[in-house]
Amino acid sequence: MNSDRVTTVVLMGAESTGKTTLAAALAKHYNTIWIAEYLRLFVDEKGALPEEADVHAIARGHLDLVASLQPEAHRVLFVDTDLFTTCVYQRIYFGECPPSIERAAKRHQSGLYLFMEPDIPWIPDPGQRASPQERLRSHALLMAEAKTHSLNTVPICGTQDQRLTTAITAVDHYLAKG
Hints:
The chain is an alpha/beta fold. Helix content is 51%, strand content 12%. Strands 2-3-1-4-5 form a five-stranded parallel sheet, with helices on both faces.
């Protein structure tokens, strides 16, 4: 169990932009853990795509997962998406996001967001990903969300090695500011 303060870093980006791959690599580099995208876990467990009313269970599940695993992290915890992403996708698929989820996103805002660019090949994942065109639309909406809430974002692009190097530099800088 870790008694030191743990800093949360969120990987934000549209589907198929390498969030999971980078989160795992960063956790390995920093000898810590990372948390998978809760929506993916929810969909896998439910065996179906989420419905509009599922947003509260998704948000609560995400927050509970982060809270339960944070004590296992060493200095930094990498989280594959957060509630800001939940809000964006809720608006994409259902038109609006409940104000309570919007407020929770702001309350649990991270100090650093590694914002994944859609400059890598799109990989199909039936039941989880729409299309390369939808990825670009989602990317634009996520960028707008980050700007609206003045999230501290660092763009992550390039090859897998370039992405990891950029992310490590950003995380080291952020941790040094402490």
